Amino acid sequence: MTVTPLSYQSGFGNEFATEALPGALPQGRNSPQRAPYDLYPELISGTAFTAPRTVNRRSWLYRCRPSVVAGRYRAYARPWWRSGAGAGAGGPVAPEPLRWHPFPIPDEPLDFIDGLRTLVANGDVEMQTGMAAHVYLANRSMQGRALVNADGEMLLVPQQGRLFITTELGVLDVKPGEIVVVPRGIVFKVDLPDGPSRGYVCENYGAFFRLPELGPIGSNGLANARDFQTPVAAYERGEVSYELVKKFGGALWSAPMSHSPFNVVAWHGNLAPYKYDTANFMTIGSISHDHPDPSIFTVLTSPSDTPGTANCDFVIFPPRWLVAEDTFRPPWYHRNLMSEFMGLVYGQYDAKPEGFKPGGASLHNCMVPHGPDTEAFEKASQAELQPHKLEHTLAFMFESRWRFVPTDYALTGGALDTNYAECWQGLAQRFKEI
Ligand SMILES: O=C(O)Cc1cc(O)ccc1O
Ligand SMILES: [Fe+2]
Predict the structure, then answer these.
(1) Is 0.95 topped by the overall pTM?
(2) Which residues are annotated as part of the binding site for homogentisate?
(3) How many angstroms is it from 53 CA to the middle of ligand 2?
(4) Are strands 178-182 and 131-138 parallel, antiparallel or unpaired?
(5) Of the candidates 47, 53, 303, which has an alpha carbon nearest to the alpha carbon of residue 183?
(6) Identical fold, 70-260+273-278 and 280-418
(7) Which of 99, 284, 317 most suits a substitution to test ligand 1, by most atoms within 8 Å of the C-beta?
């Protein structure tokens, strides 16, 4: 790679333009008869050509060889990476809340691809709807291989260990607390500079993630566009052989390449990977009374065809001040239409201070009742309501309009907390008719 130290372009969905060699980006046209440095122009579109301008995404890549130069694909069986509502064993999904202890990172050599385990999924990759939530449990960098996902965009939430991500469009260094999104169809590889690493992945089969509308909040707030960081062009020199692993139609495939797929010398456009530091999230909350809906914590949303009812919302619960008066401050008890998958990057989550651990997960599907555990209820209903800062904590939620189906790995892989529902059984009747 030619770029050290890493630099980024700022903004969300901009018309970015970047070249690793001076003059490599054609000016005034996209596909000149001969491009500078005899590079091949190549288009990647992330939306239909005719998608409305505001949601149209495409980029022009100027590369040493076009992507079509690759060997034949063979099936690459990886049973842990599952797709869509058929991801489970096939039986009905019990209407139970589920929780998982932290997923242990195995000792056997596993890179990001082989260490990926699907926990829950919904929708259908063929219909471009729904999503999967995975964990990755990896202990070595992807050596001589690259990954490309035709089924969806990949939102990575590192929980332990930094990720050094090489993409066709440049490189990103992502630490826990930050997230990274690689669009559908962009080739990437994951190196692990910190050794054994764990994190969560949202594989979004639906509409690409975008910033939520701000409504009465106004023109600033939540995740601000300028805090998103997209890499500058960087390319690998020389004839290095690669294995290209492709997710396509719910299955994995592998093809040999006699050169690096990371051979893009310049690019421009608005379809690009980006990272975001959740520390920059401008959190909004109640400064009078009551616990607001968690939609105020939406970082990114993938809409569905029904307005306001997301294919997937990516929501964070970051450090913040709690100041609401005469208010039960943790989440209320609730049953929701939307299905909720949660993970914890670090610290404690206020509704489940003990049982929900960093590196673990929970699932509350459509209309499955849940809320603070007994201990959290006792504490919060008696606490003296001073301004209080929730510190050193970062939980998140992938929330979807479609019910999640847990996989075999999720149910029988050893991390399931079989006593989860016990955490509410101490909620005795307190009602007294006077
Ligand atoms: O269930 C959860 O812990 C997530 C959540 C948090 C909150 O503050 C309100 C609703 C909600 O689903
Ligand atoms: Fe909830």
Answers:
(1) yes
(2) 349, 370
(3) 35
(4) unpaired
(5) 47
(6) yes
(7) 317
| Contact status, residue 134 vs residue 117, Cβ threshold 8 Å | yes
392 in catalytic set:
no
The finding on whether 340 has its CB within 6 A of some atom of ligand 1 is yes
Joined together, the tokens standing for residue 363 give 């699932």
Q: How far apart are CA 247 and CA 253, in angstroms?
A: 6
Find where tokens 């970082």 sit: 299
The ligand 1 atom nearest the CA atom of 293: 9
Distances (CA, A) of 193 to 92, 94, 197, 350: 41, 40, 9, 32
Report the complex ipTM. Answer: 0.99
CATH number of the domain at 280-418, please?
A: 2.60.120.10
Would you put residue 326 in left (φ > 0), alpha (ψ -120 to 50) or beta?
A: left
Residue-wise pLDDT tens digits, 165-202: 999 999 999 999 999 999 999 999 999 999 999 999 99
Class of domain 70-260+273-278: mainly beta
Give residue limits of the domains in the chain: 70-260+273-278, 280-418
């589920």: which residue's tokens?
A: 98
Nearest CA to ligand 1 atom 8: 331
**SS3 label, residue 408:** helix
Hey, how many other C-beta atoms are within 10 angstroms of the C-beta on 15? 9
Q: Which of 287, 274, 297, 155 is nearest to 221 (CA)?
A: 297
Among 327, 328, 364, the mutation site with the greatest number of ligand 1 atoms within 8 A of its Cβ is: 364
